[in-house]
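Example record

The entry below shows one chain as it appears in the dataset: sequence first, then structure tokens.
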Amino acid sequence: MAKSSKLIRNSGRYFFAHVALLFSMFSGSAGTMAATTDLKLARYIITETKGPNSFDPLDADATQNLPVARMIYLTPIETSFDDRLASTVLEKFNYDPVQKKIQFVVKSGLKFSDGSPITTQDVLLAILRMAWKRPDFPVIKEIVGIKQWVAQSKPLKTLPEGIISNGSLISISLDKTVHHPLFRFTLELFSIIPSRCINLEDGTVSCKEIPTSGYYQIESKNDSSIVFKKREEFPKILDRKAPDRIQFEYHEPKEIFTSKVLEGSSVAASNDGLFTYDEMEKINSQYLVRSLPRSRFFGFGINPTAKPFTSKICRQYFAQVFRKSYGKLLSHAGDIEGSIFTKIVTGYLSLDELEKANLSLESAKKRCLSEYKANPIRWSATSAFRDANYEAAMKNTLAELGQTDSDPVIFETRQQQDEAFLGQKVHIARFATGLWPLDPLGDLQMLFTPGLHKTLVFQQKDTALQDKITHLRSELPPSDRPNLAKDLNRYIFDDATFNVYRHISRFYVSTKSGQLSNFPTSVGSAAPWQVFEP
């Protein structure tokens, strides 16, 4: 928990010691870090976060855990190199919208890294554990009998009414038609681990060393990098060659063009929200760059139960001042947004359109400044998730609002930050997320699923918001959707507890003579091995 506005320390050594302990679950002995001059070693540069803090699949949605989970675990379904849904662990899969039924047939002959077979029960438990933990998750919430199943004292020892397991077949019946339900099972949250490693009494992971199901396993590591080695049973991944060994390296974003991190067989993953327009121009001129659709965004949450933000108009005024402060740091003011839907998604509204309803905010300035003075604002960041532009804008905002102490409270972990935010020790927490272009409303429902993200509890409990999302997810005439989506967008913007301020695009970059490959663009991020030329 925070001690002051300075870095919360045990210090950084505590964090990496904890991660090293987790690594030991997967790698046996530590081994020796492979030299980066090894021609068979592909280097994957991560600039958005630091190393992982959990290998539990239920924590795999966290930005720092997601890339590692994708390396060491299979999910029931995956996105192939050419944007198709595919699977290594399933012989076949399908969804019948008429019968409202999903069917998986589990492939035989696959093994975990310890040589034990991957069974139908292992795949089933990956789904059931998600259902037990997050029963309101999209698709999961539509499984027949899910509410009654979760209400049992030990649900993991039984099956919901809508799930049948017979031999290699898993059949999932839904109580309503769902759009794009199969995509949900590509998410790292459904990562497959041995069922024997799951405690059926309480759903926790019980194995000290979790055998991995994925294409790679951890070979070696140090405080700032991890080396993965491809498992021998996967000479190809979804019918395509992939690097035999991949080294994750964690770097600050600006190191992409201020150092030689991109030399050799390397690809960096980043997003344009971490750079100004001029810096992105420099990157595009120097390197080979491939971008995903602009479907992600930066934002910050405000705790509406803590003064001064119990007043909606004071939340709105703060968000307005922040967006103006942030815009002054960028080369193009048009980069500032307020819409939860990006331009490629139905329901997008420009910041000007959204702010029209709040033209009276200036009249609230005197009142809100008094509220801010009486109740000093505390904001937060984590040591693994820093953004210089955001932090400068937040400091400038607080200075403009008359607050003399504008330094952030910095936490070692997101969990510490979440606890402080919900406990009103800090008022503001930053986030980055996005909506899948093919099913944005499903992603929006997923984002605000009760129990999924602790700091979004205010949106999760907002019945008006949840009703609007549910209504948009129902069968509506196509002509009704744009206006209803815009209405939902305005509602989120006006509530000002969930404040989007910039739309971003994830991009991948290598030297112009490097090995950057074609990769799927219909998802939020490509699997690390997909970005390298085979």
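Notes for this example: The first helix runs from residue 12 to 27. The radius of gyration is 23 Å.
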